[in-house]
Amino acid sequence: MKPAVPLLRRVVTAGALASAAVVLTLAVTHATQYFFLYDDFALIGEARAHAAGTILRDSLFGFYRPLLFATTRIESAWFGWHQPAGYLLVSLGWHVLNAALLFTLTRRIGGTVVAATVAAAVLTISPWAGETYLWFSGRFDVMSAAGVLAAMVSALGVADARTPWGRRVWTTLVAIATCVAVFSKEPGVVTPLLCALAIIVARPRAWRQRGPMMAILASGSVVVAYLVMRQLALPGFGSAYGSVFTLYLERDVWTNAASLIGAFGAFPLPGTIAGDPLPFVRITGAAVLGLVVLAGAVKAAPRLTAFAVLALLVSLGPVLPFDIETGSSAEGRYLYLPGAFVAMAIGLAAGASRVMAAASLTIIGVSVWSVSHQVPQWRAATATSREAIEEFRPVLRSGATSVYIPNFPYYLAEGPYVLEDFAFRYYFEGATVPEVRTRNMLLRMSGDQLEFAGWIDPAPESPATPGETVLRLNGIQARER
């Protein structure tokens, strides 16, 4: 790869680092004001309620992801239910670790310092997957990606090792990292494939040597062991979403693939949910900019670009049963690991020429804009969740046995999740919590306030049943219709 002129390298590197610093500042500020949302309650509540052996052996509310439940159990001993900021700050630590791992991986496969810096900065921003570090329950994807990236770096370490002892150490690290990947979330099963791909592309002469082959075998063995344990916990390869096989058979994976890939250029920006006035122009512009960057990456480093594209496709495989609504942050977590390889391609193009540098910096600038647009939405969601929990607290003292909430804040149209009816049972741990029935609202942002956007179930409001206490949440800043 031809080095860019020194001034260009400094401008691109400085711009990337400054942008990453801005996003981290926004994320940390959000984390310090965080309150639990949606699945957070069940994740923490189930982790606190089960011993380590049970977490490893059984599924918890339809998922077999024991590592995150185990680490959450440990964190809950420190943070409990009263320091929600602690959980999200730990997530941000994992997120920064992933950026460092992507920097290292990009360098070890032959990328320049500029390419590695830009790649790490874009992953730090992750505008298409902001929910992974703005929402605690996105930790599944962050931890799994850390395992995958660490395994790839370690696999290259095996190929570079000069002594048997060094190869054994790196192989052990490959196995440990694969454990982190798969026992955090299911997409980690592609780890052996990605490790093999990294070695084939970056160390082609070492591919057939014993050390790298043993490393891939070690990673594959961990995946097989995980699949066996998962099958025992969830027979038929089931999940809360249904059987894995059924998911692939019943979903249009080609349409989903287009949705997932398109989401890298159509990530959340102002107006994309309320009604984009120029959707064709915006989407076309994103497509053209993406093709320019891809062409620049191919010109600068064709072999490494091929690796990034192939790794992107492999990492998309496990999430093909799902799609993403254009402009929404919901489900963006599925793009977190694939986004690392998109970030790598952007980095490879960044130092190729002045045009490529400008294109990459444009993407970074728009990405920062996107995150600055998403953070207030998640902040509003957390504030609404906190208000609802506090308004429910007096119900515990009233002795009510059944509660109906006719204006329950379920989620925001822009993507952030707010509450599920099980939140009270988990949060008020140890108390006698009445049965909760809800009529779920969809909310949307209007400036910095929330407004009513519809009912999740459009059926008319039902009256309270005998013995049922009605709790209308006054703190919800929304106009009901």
Strand content range:
5-15%
Helix/strand-derived class?
A: alpha/beta
Number of helical segments with 4 or more residues: 18
Overall shape: globular
Major sheet: arrangement of strands:
3-2-1-4
**What is the H/E string?**
HHHHHHHHHHHHHHHHHEHEEE
The end-to-end distance, rounded to whole angstroms, is 60 Å
- Domain count, please report it: 2
User: Radius of gyration from the CA trace?
Assistant: 23 Å
Low-confidence sequence ranges: none
Number of strands: 4
- Average pLDDT figure: 87
Helix amount = 55-70%
Query: What's the main sheet like?
Result: 4 strands, mixed
What does this structure look like?
The chain is α/β, with parallel strands linked by helices and 481 residues long. 62% of the residues lie in helices and 7% in strands. The chain has helices spanning 6-32, 39-49, 52-57, 66-79, 84-108, 113-125, 131-134, 139-160, 164-184, 191-202, 210-233, 244-250, 253-263, 279-300, 302-316, 336-350, 354-398, 423-427, and strands spanning 402-412, 435-446, 449-455, 469-470. The protein has a 4-stranded mixed sheet, with helices on one face. The longest helix is centred in the last third of the chain and has 45 residues, at 354-398.
How are the secondary structure elements laid out?
Elements: H1 6-32, H2 39-49, H3 52-57, H4 66-79, H5 84-108, H6 113-125, H7 131-134, H8 139-160, H9 164-184, H10 191-202, H11 210-233, H12 244-250, H13 253-263, H14 279-300, H15 302-316, H16 336-350, H17 354-398, E1 402-412, H18 423-427, E2 435-446, E3 449-455, E4 469-470
Parallel strand pairs: 1-2, 1-4
Antiparallel strand pairs: 2-3
Helix pairs in contact: 1-5, 1-6, 1-17, 2-4, 4-5, 5-6, 5-8, 6-16, 6-17, 8-9, 8-10, 8-11, 9-11, 10-11, 10-15, 14-15, 14-16, 14-17, 15-16, 16-17
